Predict the 3D structure of the following.
Amino acid sequence: MEFYLTALVLGLCLSAMALGIFISMKIFRIPDITTDGSYTLGAVVTALLLSHHWNAGVVIPLVLIAGALAGILTGLIHTYLKIDALLSGILVMTGLYSINLSLLGRSNVPLLDVSNIFFLLPVMGTSLLTQLATVLLFVLGITALISYLLRTDFGIAMRATGSSEAMTRALGIPANRMKIIGLAIANALTALSGYLVAQYQNFTDINMGIGIVITGLGSVLIGEALIKWGAIRSITGQLITVICGSLLFQGVLAFTLSIGVDPNLLKLVTASFVLLIVVIPKFTRHD
């Protein structure tokens, strides 16, 4: 049981990234690979500041700013330099690897002896329950804020930009600015996941973000399937299903490990699972 509770906590930690990918890929229709770099960036900033005895709560806005800057850079390259969105993300992600390594100073930094966010909310029971309660409250707060933003006039303009850029331009909405802001928000959320995971696993590694976009994409695809099956229209409901997708994704990986699959094959299992999610609707669709 504890094994699956661990997967649940990790799924909640990664759900912020899933929300970010939902914004970039489902709202703006932008395949943003910056995720791999901004996720690690969030963890690197967290490790640097916590190891210098900064308060975990104070670190949050700095992590958000760091992730947002990465997203803004990708957005500027894509919109103003007219470079394909996928290539823009790859370029920023590649550059971030060197930046992260330079900031971290080494490949791995342990966070065992620092005060982290999980000490801010002591509750009864085991430390795992404390972590679960802390992350759950954290994710609910993020979801509420994103839901509110996307239901404001500004948020509706963002969603309209993703649905029909030509129409939004005709209405006088600055589409390029909307894309940049959207990518900034998406990567700020991704960096926030790096912030949570680094503290949960008690270390930051320079390679922890490699391939993480697949995990986020898998969570979003599961969430999208739930949205279609449940005919969910409200933006709050859609955000919640994306979080559920992140939890289900981690649950599948936990089950895979529990039945004795070699951990070295976990990336292969992850890629295969995402492929399965993408392929199944194509065979179940009726024309």
Notes: Residues 175-201 form the longest helix (27 residues). Strands lie at 108-110, 203-205. The first strand starts at residue 108 and ends at 110. DSSP finds eleven helices and two strands in the chain.
